[in-house]
Specification:
Layout: H1 2-13, E1 20-22, E2 30-32, H2 35-96, E3 109-123, E4 144-150, E5 155-160, E6 168-172, E7 177-187, E8 190-202, E9 216-228, E10 233-241, E11 274-284, E12 288-295, E13 313-317, E14 319-321, E15 331-333, E16 339-346, E17 352-368, E18 379-397, E19 401-411, E20 424-426, E21 432-434, E22 436-447, E23 452-463, E24 466-469, E25 475-478, E26 503-520, E27 523-538, E28 548-561
């Protein structure tokens, strides 16, 4: 029967009206299908074909839907990935802007810093200083000092030095500090930074501790810095730490390594200055650095000549009375060109290393004696000074024990040392003579915990004497014993004379700690103490005396860092 139906179906497909079929079992038997039966079969075949087409259409639609679904899934995954990248960038920006309190046009980032300080200072010998020690003023028990009795006429009087027997205690909030930094990205590789930092250690002639304690806010730093990272170039203009100040990495502003002391004059042997300058720095892969800076000059200390030799001039001076925008009771030095500093730094992977040189020029205004031309022969005399120095920061035990060393040697460099020894004295003709000097400071810091640091430091600054012959062939100079200095009464309390030597060296040993007892979302609060033993030694006199005056100092500091 199946064979019959198949034959009929084929016949219907061929459009035949009748078919004669032979049975598979009875080969000679004929089967006749009517036209009605063929029509019915054709209808059934057409229905089956339509079902096939419908199934094929459904399959194609499902395939297209699957492809669309796959494309939609891929698009969704790409969108998720892009969103994740945006979230990460937003998180990084939020982290980078931690501490911002202001927005700013053009995407300027503002960061506030500083601390509020309540500090004490005790000194076993009263130097009449606030929290910044003037080390060359440590008093001897004997000798005399001068003080003005009429600031209008400039007259002075002499009196026995007695404060060597007095100790000193004071409270001070003046080292409190405020800073603000503005940062903007000109493009992906060019960045500009502005920085202002101030404290209250300025003191006008009216400033005192009698009642209102009205001390002056002063500039510590005020500069603009531009970084062209694509070229490895960095430009700084304004008042900043001198280029010769030790850095922790590279030659980068705000990366200076300062002694961890409470004393606002830092530590003896520390080489530094904060002054106006124009600095250009080049780096190679942030590993090798070369910087050149032209900085504001000043002759900070002038040691007077002594001896029996006759000078070949009537008057000479390296300073003049201060003028506009200065306190006229002060003086400013005669300077014709800026100080020039060149510095090389390296960050090879372990430690930071520096080598620098400085060039200085000094000027005096000299009026010769009448025999040599008198006032009509007045002229400027100049002399060159300078030196070289080194610095390093070594992580002896990473994040646990650090060692810093810095130092400098040269002529006329007293201004750049914490103790502030004299830059120059005068020659026989009245020209400036830069004094030879060396200075060094070493500091060891133990980070016992994240909250507790213990440090120890030792430093020294020392000058050489200067000896020449006067116009009459007799000795003239600075500090040398044969010049006739007499220090025999320096250690005799209340002796009015015979303590005339000049300072040869200052040394200091310091130990202290900082305890950050709160660190959290409200800032940081820390407490510190510092003990220092400082000694001031004079040049040896004609009797072989080289007396020393010592001062034991103890500081405490309570500081809150809100930013």
């Amino acid at each position: 029967m199946r064979s019959k139906m198949l034959t009929v179906a084929i016949a219907a497909g061929l459009g035949l009206t009748s078919v004669t079929a032979v049975s598979a079992q009875t080969s000679n038997k004929k089967v006749t299908v009517s036209a009605a039966e063929l029509a019915q079969m054709q209808a059934e075949i057409a229905a089956l074909e339509q079902k096939v087409q419908d199934l094929q259409s459904q399959s194609a639609a499902q395939t297209q839907a699957q492809q669309q679904t796959a494309q939609s899934v891929q698009a969704t995954q790409a969108q998720v990935q892009a969103t994740q990248v945006q979230v990460q960038q937003a998180e990084q920006q939020a982290s980078a802007k931690l501490g911002d309190t202001l927005g700013g046009s053009g995407g300027v980032k503002w960061t506030f810093g500083g601390f509020l300080a309540a500090e004490t200072a005790y000194r076993s010998r009263d130097t009449a200083d606030d929290v910044a020690t003037k080390f060359t003023a440590i008093p001897f028990q004997g000798g005399t000092s001068t003080a003005p009795i009429n600031t209008g006429s400039g007259a002075t009087t002499s009196y026995p030095v007695t404060n060597a027997k007095n100790d000193q205690f004071l409270y001070s909030a003046r080292q409190s500090r405020l800073s603000v930094k503005a940062e903007g990205d000109i493009n992906d590789s060019t960045h500009v930074t502005g920085y202002y930092e101030t404290d209250f250690l300025g003191g006008a002639q009216t400033a005192n501790m009698n009642e209102s304690n009205s001390f002056n806010m002063r500039i510590r730093q005020l500069w603009t810095n531009i970084d062209w990272n694509a070229y490895g170039l960095h430009l700084l203009a304004g008042q900043a730490w001198s280029l010769l100040t030790l850095d922790s990495v590279g030659i980068t502003p705000t990366k200076e390594v300062l002694p961890p002391t409470i004393d606002a004059q830092y530590a003896v042997g520390f080489t530094w200055a904060r002054q106006a300058q124009l600095r250009i720095v080049k780096d190679w892969d942030k590993m090798w650095w070369l910087g050149v800076s032209v900085e504001n000059p000043q002759t900070a200390g002038v040691g007077s000549l002594a001896g029996t030799g006759t000078k070949g001039y009537a008057t000479t001076t390296a300073t003049v009375q201060a003028g506009s925008l200065y306190d006229t009771l002060n003086t400013v030095s005669l300077n014709q060109i800026p100080d020039v500093i060149v510095k090389f730094a390296a960050d090879p992977g372990w430690g930071h290393y520096e080598l620098f040189g400085i060039s200085r020029q000094f000027t005096t205004r000299v009026t010769p004696t009448t025999a040599n031309g008198g006032p009509a022969g007045t002229s400027n005399q100049t002399a060159h000074g300078g030196g070289f120095g080194i610095g390093m920061v070594l992580p002896l035990v990473p994040k646990v024990l650090d060692f810093q060393l810095s130092g400098m040697s040269g002529k006329g460099i007293g201004r750049y040392g914490t103790a502030g020894l004299s830059d120059i004295t005068y020659t026989t003709s009245g020209a400036p003579h830069p004094l030879k000097e060396n200075m060094a400071l070493g500091t060891l810091t133990w980070h016992a915990t994240d909250a507790f640091d213990l440090y120890a430091a030792g430093g020294r600054e020392q000058q050489d004497s200067y000896l020449t012959s006067g116009v009459n062939g007799l000795p003239l100079g600075y500090g040398a014993a044969v010049l006739g200095y007499n220090n025999s009464d320096c250690l005799v309390y209340g002796a009015p004379s015979d303590c005339t030597g000049q300072t040869r060296s200052v040394t200091e040993q310091t130990i202290g700690f900082w305890w950050k007892f709160y660190q959290g979302k409200f800032g940081r609060v820390q407490f510190g103490t510092q003990f220092s033993h400082a000694s001031r030694q004079l040049f040896t006199d004609i009797h072989g005396n080289a007396p020393t005056a010592s001062d034991n100092m103890f500081f405490t500091s309570f500081r809150y860092y809100p930013f």
